[in-house]
Amino acid sequence: MPSDPETLWETIRQGLSRQLPEASFGEWIAPCRPLRMEADTLWIQVPSQAAKLWIEQQLPEEFNDALAQGGLGDLRLVFQVPHGVPGAGTASGIPAKPLPPAPASGGEPSGAFPHLFHRYTLDRFVVGPGSQLAFAAARAVVDTFGRAATPLSMNPLFIYGGAGLGKTHLMVGIGKELLVLHPELRVAYLKVDHFFNEVTAAIRVKNTEPMRKKYQQNDVLLLDDVQTLGKMERTQEEIFYILEYLLQHGKQIVITSDKPPQKLEGCHERLITRFKWGLTADIQPPDFETRIAILKKKLEDGDFKGLPLVPEDVLTFIAHKAKGSVRDLEGLLTRVIFQASLKGETPSLEVAHAAFQGQSGEEPTAPVSPDRIYRMTAETFNVPFGDLMKKRTRQPAVMVPRQVAMYLAREIASLPFADIGRSFNMHHSTVMNAIDSVKQRMGRDPEFHRMVQALLNSIH
To answer: What kind of fold does domain 5-99 have according to CATH?
Structure first.
């Protein structure tokens, strides 16, 4: 491995430039500078505490990939904020010290997991309706490890879902907890793209046996991103032999993918069969309540200690805007907090709007369609959209959200009563009465007022 910091950092930069959008690379990576190399650790100067936090919390997998692609898998990275920069004097912004060693894996000299994955633990995973099964399965793998086989096989445990929803988080969390409970275990984290590089190198020297045995000797194999296997014929073959050996010897396997086993294009049928032997669990995007819970859990991180509190209406705005993944959600929260701190302000809706526009390129105050108002109201109240719009009922669980949707359509979009009524197949006088009812309740119920106002602010 080279010892020149500039050479090492350039290798990492090139790997990141192939993975990140140009705007993200320019904002977070381009301003960074290598400082020095000490033993196996490269110290990197970042321009701000916001950049340090963003890199450590939002880009650990991208950095891990860049290190592996550059043949730098054993290199450790430490990010340092220079003195005199806002935030550099905070607890997490003082000149950094090398991170403590990762848990050893069966006597291996390096840790079982990339050191930037230190936040991936089961206790930091926020469970919602869309992730209950996957989390319960992860918990069960840990709790039942080493016991006699049960009627429900969880080997392999196959977790699938979209990017940024927490698949790698759960997988690494399983491995870490198993190592805490059973320090003698040999645990290997293996990403398919990295394994492809190992296979290629082994083929070059015409000997794949040592590589195969290296993974067959583990007690737990964590195989990440198998959806990329499609065109890797020889890599599929090697993974099959490894999985077959581990399963025959009762070793635990956890697999992640963007797709379920039956939809993995280009994979051999015998490999798909092995993937499906155990339990398959999906992770869906978090619902509104879970997104709020994730944000509040995130604010408990030590990195946010001592910073101004984030108001409920700002959290509601973030939860409505960042729906696609947990990574987007946490990223927008981080941007809001540090954009406010750099201005010396407390987080506010104005700051949140600017942060959202900076992250997405979208204008948050563009005209709001009635459909969006109604859908966000249904989501906030956890009511099916079809029930909100058309279900004939006097049940408060549906009637109150419908009245709030009418009120918001009038307040935000200034829709005529007749137009709102047509959306809900109701007379305009019914709409007027519903809006009056919401206003009266807001006047006498502070909690209801706060909730409606937060929803209004997040949509507007």
So the answer is: GMP Synthetase; Chain A, domain 3 (3.30.300)
